[in-house]
Amino acid sequence: MNGALTGPTADAPDRATRAQRLRVSLLDVAAWLANRLPARVVGAAADAAGELWYRATPARAAQARANLGRVVAHLAATGTGSARARAADDDPAALERLVRAAYRHAARTYAELIRAAAVVREAPGRTRIETPDAVDAAFATRPAVFSSLHFGSLQATEAILLTRNETTITAPMETLGDPALQAFMTRARSASGVRLVSLEAARRELRAALGRGEYVGVIGDRDIIGGGVPVPFFGAPAPLPVGPALLAIESSAPIHVAAVRRLRGERYAGRLETILPPGGAVATGPGARRARVEALLAQEAAAFERLIADAPEQWWSVFFPIWPDLEPEPRP
């Protein structure tokens, strides 16, 4: 099922090598320590790691620069987003500050995965819900598809979703080639209580969960495995995975687009928007089905734009190709 969360599942290859086990042992030590240190200490260490990462990976920075350049150009043209982001449209130094900030936030994402248990415990009390009515309405309806993106804190997003309801959330995740790392990541990703399934079983498992009146969670901002449908995204066509739209159409369930971004002081802000699938009598056939998928994906892309506009530097998909027509260029 396209539109899956990137990460591990409970499935894993047979045996880990000694080197793989050693690496995960070090991660276990880091996780033990990170879950006991204050969030500000871990965050500061992640920021420092992000700065080193920025200096060490110029090709990756070029990809982020190109993607963020397109985002801020669209924000400037439409008068949306923050003044800081819009200013980066015609100020190379301001754009570079966004690129560096993107590295720091990406490093914080990995740090939050390592200290997942602490984030799950702390995030609900540190998060300001900016759309409380939409959130209350979302959890009053079952089944539903929760669609998020590689933005802000996925650990905090899952923690808040799981603490606001007692209904199972099923999410697909990739299987890693490293079985020891697979087990570590599965433990971390399961800390919030989400039920993980493999990509191979995702379509069947997610449809079954919706059929039971439960929730499913998918990531929909990057076409990782191919087969996505191009829709307008920050002013240019970008292929988005069809998973969320297909699940909504097949189950008549709403799509709740949700994300949690980081604020200063190790705090968070969360927002949610709801997209309703077409109701009533609709045309049938491959052409009509594709039109419905495209319409839902276009609405989802627009919701993603509004979430990203709050803090483009927290959208960590910028390190990967998003638009087929956009080629990264080295820094002048």
Note down, in words, how this protein is organized.
With 332 residues, the chain is of the alpha/beta class. It has one domain (18-319). It is 51% helix and 15% strand. It has twelve helices and nine strands. It has a seven-stranded mixed sheet with strand order 1-9-8-2-5-3-4, with helices on both faces. α9 (179-189) links the parallel β3 (169-173) and β4. α2 crosses α5 (92-114), α5 crosses α6 (116-126) and α6 crosses α8. The longest helix has 24 residues, at 286-309. The chain starts with 17 loop residues before the first helix and ends in a 23-residue tail after the last helix. Residues 1-13 have low confidence and may be disordered.
Q: In one word, what is the shape?
A: globular
Number of domains in the coordinates?
A: 1
List low-confidence stretches. Answer: 1-13
- Sketch the major β-sheet: 7 strands, mixed
Numbering strands along the chain, what is their spatial order in the largest sheet? 1-9-8-2-5-3-4
Q: What structural class is derived from the secondary structure elements?
A: alpha/beta
Q: Summarize this, please?
A:
With 332 residues, the protein is of the alpha/beta class.
Throw out a few tags for this protein.
alpha/beta; disordered N terminus; 332 residues; two-stranded antiparallel sheet; globular
SSE arrangement:
Elements lengths: L17 H17 L4 H18 L1 H21 L4 H5 L4 H23 L1 H11 E3 L2 H7 L5 E5 L5 H10 L5 E5 L5 H11 L5 E4 H13 L3 E5 L9 E5 L2 E5 L2 H9 L3 E9 L3 E9 L10 H24 L23
Parallel strand pairs: 1-9, 2-5, 2-8, 3-4, 3-5
Antiparallel strand pairs: 6-7, 8-9
Helix pairs in contact: 1-9, 2-5, 3-5, 5-6, 6-8, 11-12
